[in-house]
Amino acid sequence: MTMTPERTDSAMLHSELRVECDPDAIIRDGHRLDHAEGTSKPLRPAPEPQPRGAKVRGNRPIDQQEAAARFIAATEHEKMHDERLWDLRQKRDREMHGIPEWEELRSLASAIKEHTLTHLDEYLDQFEANARSNGIHVHWARDAAEHNKIVHGILRDHRATSLIKSKSMLTEECGFRHYMASVGIEVIETDLGERIQQLDNEDPSHVVVPAVHKLRTDVAEVFSHTIGTDPGNTDVHYLAEAQREATRPLILNADAGMTGANFVVAETGTFVVCTNEGNADLSANVPKLHIASIGIEKIVPRLEHLAVFVRLLSRSALGSPMTQYTSHFRGPRTGGEMHVVLVDNGRSERLGLEEFWTSLKCIRCGACMNTCPVYRRSGGLSYGATYSGPIGLIIDPTFNARKYSNLPFASSLNGSCTNVCPVKINIHEQIYAWRRVLVKQHEVPLAKKAAMKAAGVLLSRPAAYRAAIASADTALAHLPRFVIYNGLNAWGKHREVPHSPEQTFHSWYHANRGAKR
Ligand code: SF4
Q1: In a 10 Å sphere around its CB, with 0-12 CB exposed, 13-18 middle and 19+ buried, how is residue 68 labelled?
Q2: In angstroms, rounded to a whole number, what is the distance separating the alpha carbons of residues 301 and 166?
Q3: Which atom of ligand 1 is nearest to the CA of 364?
Q4: Which of 254, 469, 491, 503 counts the most CB atoms within 10 A of its CB?
Q5: Three-state SS for 37?
Q6: What is the structure's pLDDT at 233?
Q7: What integer pLDDT is reported at residue 452 of this predicted model?
């Protein structure tokens, strides 16, 4: 058969056959003979496309269910995500069992945080005074806009046009990268996962592992478009090395560096950053200008308190005894300059919310996300918010109750999040409390509100409830299938209604045990 030029057009071939520099390739008349003996490779199915996150439309309520359904439909992604996070949860359990005083540590951490939060003004003042005497410039930002302006002002004063930064959820809250892009300053993320997300123009989907929702094929695709790697090569070492090669020159030539902080110590005026890649140390030490953006709730009173949190943080987050780097920053290095921006951005207001103020104890370990069955199966980007998973459900509505009004309903309230939280936040109780608040504030759809009201009436009247159950069983047995299994009923897409037993528990109990009482 004569092979026409069209048939050898590389665009027609599966991506795994389009290897540009294959030494075994047989070339004829300037065309590679991909099916020639010795060069053919097994065809693999095209990788599953990455499901994208929730659609964000201004202030309109995020439809987490819709985005979660798309994530679940991408079966490879859902399976990998579920397994990867459950693995972290199991590692966390193993580490926890190795520390006999684990529960005492949790109680201590909770008590330290509650004490600090109830004396926040004093400890912040103490930190500011000590940090200034260490040579640090301290700034205060009321909100995201003020934070971004302050950082921009510092960079402008130093004529800085490029900034390397380590992962920081606070800067995500502030929309920092977008702001910097609008004023012409290039921001380069130094954390590998965060850099992947930056190159893919996506938010982080997890507070510790920002790209955990991506398959290797997704990363290969992102890198092939942005740094020119081979799209068919999904080897993690190849991808990580390619990223390192591409980013290292940007890091070495950056004008300024930025970090967040995991903990701030009032008595010493110092702060601590924990990473596993050492990227915060690059951000802080390569350029002469170091800016740290820190939420005001990160403070602890004394250096000795750090030991409690450092023992809990990495074990809870990744199931490892320590982060690879736990770096203490005390002041600018010789010839350098250090700035700390203390950011409120709604924290003071949250401190005044009687039912929700203890959410400020959070040390962003992500353990509640790793254990949550809803989060594991729906992916962090389905929440359409900076914070996802159980901690997101109780923090996000404090930023915007209307926009995030659906989120507290994305939970089974099983309490596992509360059980694993290293600072003992009563997460599932706060999720439940948010539901009550949102119903009172009329932020819940009318249909859901009416259904809940009807259920409340029914459940509070035993006779009516039993009559309803009996008639529902009869109705289910005779209803045409399409009434339940139709395109409008998301519940029926993945489930079958089980056959109802011939006897309800109540009538069984009445027949078998009731007479013995
Ligand atoms: S709420 Fe608790 S478990 Fe969840 S991220 Fe914060 S500290 Fe970790």
Answers
A1: buried
A2: 25
A3: 5
A4: 254
A5: coil
A6: 93
A7: 79
Which is the closest atom of ligand 1 to the Cα of 359? 1
Q: Which of 151, 132, 131 is nearest to 141 (CA)?
A: 151
pLDDT on residue 75: 92
CA–CA gap between residue 227 and residue 239 (Å, rounded) = 10
CA distance 469 to 290: 65
Q: What is the pLDDT of residue 24?
A: 56
Ligand 1 mutation target, pool 110, 368, 420, 427, most atoms within 8 A of CB: 368
The pLDDT, as a whole number, for residue 103 is 97
Instruction: Report residue 495 as tokens.
Output: 């489930």
163 CB near ligand 1 (under 6 Å): no
Query: Distance from the CA of 258 to the center of ligand 1, in angstroms?
Result: 24
- Please say whether the beta carbons of 55 and 384 come within 8 A: yes
What is d(CA 60, CA 426) in angstroms, rounded to the nearest whole number? 28
Give CA separation, 316 vs 365, 422, 426, 490, in Å. 6, 7, 16, 34
What is the number of the ligand 1 atom nearest to the C-alpha of 366?
5
Token duo for residue 115: 């004490």
Q: Whose CA is nearest to atom 4 of ligand 1?
A: 368
The first and second tokens of residue 295, run together, are 């939420």
208 lines ligand 1 (CB under 6 A): no
Centre of ligand 1 to C-alpha 69, Å, is 25
Record: fold of 106-190+255-349: Rossmann fold (3.40.50)
Pocket of ligand 1 contains residue 394 by CB under 6 Å: no
Rounded CA gap, 359 and 347, in Å?
A: 10
Cα 319 to ligand 1 centroid, rounded to whole Å: 14
Cα separation, 43 vs 45, whole angstroms? 7
Note the helical H segments in 372-490: 373-378, 389-399, 416-420, 427-440, 446-459, 462-478
317 Cβ closer than 6 Å to some ligand 1 atom = no
In sequence order, what are the residues at sequence separation of 6 or more whose Cβ sits closer than 8 angstroms to the Cβ of residue 329? 259, 261, 270, 271, 272, 273, 284, 290, 292, 338
Question: CA-CA distance, 426 to 359, in Å (whole number)?
Answer: 8
Cβ of 284 closer than 6 Å to ligand 1, yes or no, is no
List where CATH 3.40.50.10420 sits in the chain: 106-190+255-349
Tell me what pLDDT residue 22 has.
Answer: 55
pLDDT tens column, 282-329: 999 999 999 999 999 999 999 999 999 999 999 999 999 999 999 999
Spans of the chain, pLDDT less than 70: 1-44, 490, 494, 515-517
**Cβ proximity of 106 and 384 under 8 Å:** no
